[in-house]
Amino acid sequence: MSKIHIFTDADLDGAGCIFLFKKIYKNFTYQVTTEKKFREDFLNWQLKNKVSDFDKVIICDLNLKDNIDMIDRSGIVIYDHHSEHVEKKEQYNKANVILEEEGSCTLTIYKEHKPELTNYQKLLIKLIDDYDSYTLQYEYSKPLDKVFWSYTGNRVEKFLNDFSDGFKGFNQYHKNMLSALDRKTKDFINNETFYKGKLKISGEDRNIVSCFIQFNPNEISEIILKKYNCDIALLINLKGKSVYFRKRNNCNVSMAKLAEKICEGGGHDDAAGGTLNDTIINITKLLEPIE
């Protein structure tokens, strides 16, 4: 039996990757991490393990464009779809890399291995890809992501337990959670203070709307973009010391590159995140409350 260990991202797409690997391999261990935590987690893992002791060490859905020197090793297999990482594909010499600019890493793995799935399981893959690419062609894509983030503890494992047979709809717990989150979000939009201003980004003035949040950043940012017709929504989580960016459809600024430049972050062209720092705090000082 092959000895395999997998590092995956801590989001819905990362869970989709593990879902597929369970259909591809009979047995493996896995660890949930993030782009920001990966270097520390990988080094700690190596205190007790050697890559050479495994048939494969798989790293998936992690934009590790700045860690190529550490992971470009024989025995490591890397799956990813982030454009910034794909652009550096030629820098790898030893690792087996499957870097394709797909809507999700889940889809990258599915296309590479083509595991046998039921129609319900194929639907789950479509929903995960639809959400991670933010195409939002299917009505259940966003609710599925909300369900994922509603879990506490090991979200990936709980997601796999609930959807191991694919997507057949939501159970009563999921429905209750979604209803409660919807009410909470509407209350937030109606009562929270929002801030606006213009910032010069990529040589042009961009309309920015910002607020402080503690939950549901994707949904709230989407509402902000529509309600205030702004170019970029900037959401700040003071408790988590994190920031989120999302842009309107016809804005030509890459959120991933913006996050990388000003807050040590990353993500996708449409949505990205990073760490709350002095640069972000100084930006907020340029914004004024919306009356």
3D structure, described in words:
This protein has twelve helices and twelve strands. It is an alpha/beta fold and 291 residues long. It folds into two domains: 4-170, no CATH class; 193-289, Diaminopimelate Epimerase, Chain A, domain 1 (Roll). A seven-stranded mixed beta sheet has the order 10-11-9-8-7-6-12, sandwiched between helices. Strands 2-1-3-4-5 form a five-stranded parallel beta sheet, with helices on one face. Strand 1 (4-9), helix 1 (12-24) and strand 2 (29-33) form a beta-alpha-beta unit. The N and C termini lie far apart (64 Å).
Radius of gyration: 20 Å
Number of strands: 12
Share of helix, binned: 40-55%
Sum up the overall morphology in one term: globular
